[in-house]
Amino acid sequence: MVVTHQENTASPRKRHRIVAVFFFISLIGAGFSWIAASPIGGSPDDDFHMGSIWCPRPAEESCETAVIDGVLQVKVPEPVALATDCHAHKPDQAAVCPEPLSDAKEAFSTRFDEGSYPTLYYRFHHLLIQESVDASILVMRAANFLIAVTLFAAIGILLEKNLRYPYLLAMAASWAPMGIYFLTSINPSSWAIVGTFAYATAMWGAFSARDEKRRWALTALALLGALMSFGSRGDAAFYVFVVTAALFFAFAKKRQHLPQWILAGALSLVGIYLMLNGGQAGNVVEARSVSNNPIAIALRTLVDLPRFFGGLVGYEFGPGWFDIPLNGTVVVLAVMVTGSLLLAGIREGSWRKWMSALMVFGAMAGIPVLIIAAGTYPHLGPYQPRYILPLLAVLMFILFASDEGMRLRLSWPQKILLLMSLWVVLSFTLHTILWRYVKGLGGVPPINLDALVSWWWNIPVSPMTTWVIGTVSMGVALVTGSYLARSGHSPQDRSEVSHDADERSEAERQERALNER
């Protein structure tokens, strides 16, 4: 029996498509479980963000307002104004209110945006408001998650095959568990994380693309990512400039990339402008006189940075209103995964890799130090790790994707340990979040979350079933994602990458020759 080359390649492609379908289905299952795990007002400052969504700026035009005790307040549905008070900073209590809150009744709230945040995020989510506040929150969380999945899938499909492994590995190394938690929330950090990483990876892919159509498609996705960053937070807008600076060092300059560089420069200027003219930057300027000894404060902050970076994976800054502790198994495994992959990423590299990574890491470390030294916050703590979380995956991607993205290889024991650790981190965190809100923390953690249910959504799926769906889905997503990341590396791909490396080396030699002249 003669087997043609076409038949040989058809079977792996069919298997690849089947695995991709399972990967997508598992992501939807995992996303549902995280979306449903928290009640209304379950993530930090949700009362503020809900008020801003129901009454986007200018509030006087979108909601009924009143000045009470000299303070402008907006009238919103009771759950928007009061639901957070029922459970925030009360970890031993379930997310049930002493008296039921009604969607039909309204209450005044002081918690809404008056200029500190961009209005795009809030105006978009204002369009998703339903008659029920419960339904509105679930729809908004689902929209954020589906935007992330769709955008990341599009970028992953368009990236050159040698970049897909670093692409998925960077997300896995950076977002377990806090990144996943914010991606499925209504916090603007969701768009900040998605937009910053999408801009960085899509623009990187555009500079690496071997054909014009792919380059322009990735450029369009990078623009979309930048717009999400602009519309979410002032600091996320500035991160577009940080990423552009990293890209400047990462790639040799070629004539065919001129449109991308012009776009990146223009977006960077917009990001700087939005950051400087936002309310968050104004707070820094107003606080400059608070600090008496900025050098001493900066040194103390530098010493405190490792603890602060631990908050990126939940250390002292867990889910909820930092009232869901993850300082045991979850944090140890998460730090091990992120730290070990970070060490693997810095094993070797070119000067371009180190300068590019330095731009991102310098922002991650320098921004907190400068803000604390300026007196905006008394110490690292009020300034939360989630503010720099959007840059973590970008840093990891640079470390993994630089120098053609083919150097980092994990053995099977390493991959098994990595996947198992990530699975335990995500499953344990999801169970803890559900336990905290369904029953309230305290005593021995229950295995069966359905045993004592004090709070839950009005949906036909129980808390325990939600956790099982999430745990199984996350396991399937990790396994299938690992397969998809590795399946693109054929010998042909490697030879193409080697050819690209030769082209890049030649471009760098020409660049050095021009500089010498």
UniProtKB/TrEMBL annotation:
Organism domain of life: Bacteria
Biased composition (Basic and acidic residues): 491-517
Record's keyword annotation contains Nucleotide-binding: no
Keyword field: Membrane, Transmembrane, Transmembrane helix
InterPro entries: DUF2142_membrane (IPR018674)
DNA repair keyword on record: no
Chain segments carrying region Disordered: 486-517
Segments crossing the lipid bilayer: 18-37, 137-158, 165-183, 189-207, 214-230, 236-252, 259-276, 324-344, 356-375, 387-404, 416-438, 464-485
Pfam families: DUF2142
Record-given protein name: DUF2142 domain-containing protein
Organism for this UniProt entry: Trueperella pyogenes
